[in-house]
Amino acid sequence: MKIFSAEQLYEADKITAEKQNISSLDLMERAGEQIFKWLEDKMKGAQVPLHIFCGIGNNGGDGLVVGRHLINHGYNVTIYIANFTDKRSKCFLINYDRIKDVSKKWPVLMTSEEDFPEIAAEDIIIDALFGIGLNRPPEGWVKELIQYINKQKAFKLSIDIPSGLPANTPVPDSEAVIHANHTLTFQAPKLAFFLPETGVYVPYFEVLDIGLDRQFLMESKPLAQTISKMEAQQFYKPRAKYDHKGTYGHALIVAGSYGKMGAAILSTRATLKAGAGMVTVFSPECGYSILQTAAPEAMVLSDDEEDFITKIEYQFDASAIGVGMGIGTQKETVAALHKLFSEAKAPLVIDADALNGISEDKDLLKVVPKNSVLTPHPGELERLIGSWKNDYEKIEKARKFTKKHKVVLLIKGAHSLILFEDSMYINTSGTPGMATAGSGDVLSGVITGLLSQGYDPLLATVFGVYLHGSAGMLASSVLSYEGVMASDIADFIGDAYIELFRQEQPPAQG
Ligand SMILES: NC(=O)C1=CN([C@@H]2O[C@H](COP(=O)(O)OP(=O)(O)OC[C@H]3O[C@@H](n4cnc5c(N)ncnc54)[C@H](O)[C@@H]3O)[C@@H](O)[C@H]2O)[C@@H](O)CC1
Ligand SMILES: [K+]
Predict the structure, then answer these.
(1) pTM higher than the cut 0.90
(2) Closest C-alpha residue for ligand 1 atom 24
């Protein structure tokens, strides 16, 4: 799914009105109706008190449309207008007036803290204070209203976006944002929903199609694109009957040091599980028996040095190389990486200590081959690009880095981000069960396994991250969030492939 900026959505709004020969008022009616239908479907006439808080822009206008439909259908509704200025939008005013047609109960005008209503824990709050038009921090009693709403135990449903949260720019005041339980957003998800600092305000959301112009949406370059099952299915390369193990390449994993052989085992097993034809793992001498025992499907090459890697030598044409998991940052190891990077002919996945090596040794960064995949977690990323003031600055700095060094950058997190040239992809699979040691080693293995099978570096990264997240979800559904270990994620990679094409079962009849 494409993610557009607030500016693009306003443009889409305008173009839709022109092309479909409708007014913005009609569009607002569509938007409000969609929200109403969603509520009607859940509430089925229940007389739970609904409190709709409207601002004076078009988000408030949406709130009024929803209110009108709810009143018309006999729901128990109170509408409040946060009357923080007289500059009300035209569509707001028309819909304000239309309330008269359905109710004698005029919306409550709020002008100060005195007007904040009592709200019971069982009630429902609908937040239509600010939408994507927020252009400054909420202040004074409006900020207090947001904080008052946040204090209530009632369920909070935000229209389009939690009020106080901008769609794709930093939060002006983190103490003045609605903590929504659920958000119904129009046409496309907003970038803020997926970033760690702002995603906390949007634990759950659904996208409602309000019929904005398809052509405009198809042809506009989005800020980012989300990756879910539908997209991932298209990435999958089917296998043919007469393929053999050579078809799927011979991957090299360079991993492990004394006390960290687990990282080598996990990444090696994940490379095999993702479908590499053959895997050779290169580790220090101390890893030899461990790897031969724990990963019998892999071949093992070892360094002369017992505890860490000093010289990476292999006599075969690797189809992909995954490097860095648990290797440490010994001087000799970093020197070995230098040689590996300078001579590698296969696409590389560079992870963990190899990334730390790059951060510490700028000469090493210079020899990172073009199109390599770098997979930092936030700490590793900071060492690579420096600190950032907010998630948007982080993305900008990361983008500069990818463009300068011509690499694919995968920023790991609850929603991992993949940056390459001017594009950004956001993964949607995964669970908190994956916040466990070694889960990144498995991910590097999956991407290496896909590269080995001929997926290009960007596709291998985007698809690999999705599969890894899906394996984590499947593992969590059986083992619980707490019970999942990284090796379980590796074990579920096969299931993640199957899940890609599993049809949802229709609900049982009767
Ligand atoms: N495609 C679209 O763009 C559509 C937009 N619609 C709705 O319209 C919304 C955008 O409407 P608007 O552009 O009118 O903006 P908003 O309704 O988001 O509200 C902003 C209004 O409040 C003022 N304001 C902004 N920040 C403020 C602050 N901190 N304190 C006090 N006042 C502040 C602004 O000047 C503006 O008048 C969307 O979020 C959505 O809910 C829908 O009606 C349908 C289609
Ligand atoms: K809102």
Answers:
(1) yes
(2) 134
